[in-house]
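Bug #77: duplicate submission created two jobs. Keeping one. Sequence:
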Amino acid sequence: GVVSGEFEGISGRLDSYSPLLVLRLDIQKGGKMAFPLPEKFNAFVYQLDGLLEINLRKQTTAKDLVWFANDGKSIFIEGLEDSRAVLFAGQPLNEEVTTYGPFVMNTQTGIMEAIRDYQLGKMGVLIEDFS
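Kept job's structure:
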């Protein structure tokens, strides 16, 4: 399913601030597909389970992450078993980045504001239900 961006005429429900494509992949054994991407996009596939072959040369399993160079026109994926994965691709922002723990912003001031927002509860609440 399309999470963000547009793929084959389907738009994802999440808006983005730069060109972006996020796809949730449910691939059956024997399923094959090429995912066209702009050449300059950064892209990676994070595999959740199963067994995949990527670009006819690399087999991947659960929790593998495959990062791609910005030099191709598509990513070809084949399911060697029923598998689930997520494909992330987007235009590089080419901006300065600074980090502090889990916070990633463009400036140290942005980091301080993010920490303050977190401490004030402005970033929402994560509720985990494993039942």
